[in-house]
Amino acid sequence: MNQKILWGLRILLLILLVAWMYVIFSMSAQDGKKSSGTSEKVCREIAHVTVKDFEKMTEPAKQQVVGKMQRPVRKMGHMTEYAVLAVIFSALFLTFSKLRKKGLWALCSFVGGALYASSDELHQRFIAGRAGQITDVFIDMGGFCIGLLIVTLVFGIIFLIRKKKQNHLPV
């Protein structure tokens, strides 16, 4: 690949990485009340789609359904944020041939994700109504590992397709 194009791609991915980190930081900067309100809205939308006759329920019954959904939905949100972060980190590190050839792109991505997840939880300790917890770092990193797995599978499939095409080319 042309070096100018490669460096342009790296800069674009770095901008995307910083932008996504800002999104995560912004979500973590919400105080406990605002964060809970956001989660409640998301859970209500999910309940409208997934819970039979949700709109016909009494408000206390709706609150009970939404209350049961909040924790899993919040944790899935964290995992999704970090899965996306893993894809962006991976894409950036895969542009460096030495990291790609030695398989170090995944390790570099993982370390970057772990450092960011840890700093994010530390950041939350200073936000009213929020609590940074080590268990949340593990949840974030679970999502990150899912993102790494997706990237690994996609690149594995691409590698197999390329290998198969090379084997069928006339000599």
What does it look like?
- There is one protein chain.
- The chain is mainly alpha-helical.
- It has one domain.
- It contains six helices and no strands.
- It has helices at 3-28, 32-50, 59-94, 97-101, 104-124, 134-168.
- Helix 1 (3-28) runs antiparallel to helix 3 (59-94) and helix 5 (104-124) packs antiparallel against helix 6 (134-168).
- The longest helix has 36 residues, at 59-94.
- It is globular.
- The mean pLDDT is 93.
Termini separation: 24 Å
Rg: 20 Å
- Write the element-wise H/E pattern from the N-terminal end onward: HHHHHH
Structure class: mainly alpha
Give the beta-strand count.
Answer: 0
Share in β-strands: under 5%
- Pick out the low-confidence regions: none
Number of domains: 1
Question: Number of helical segments?
Answer: 6
* Fraction of residues in helix: over 70%
Oligomeric status: single chain
What about the largest sheet?
A: none
The coarse overall form would be globular
Kindly report the average pLDDT value. 93
Short description:
The chain has 171 residues and is an all-alpha fold.
Topology record:
Elements: H1 3-28, H2 32-50, H3 59-94, H4 97-101, H5 104-124, H6 134-168
List descriptors.
171 residues, mainly alpha, 83% helix
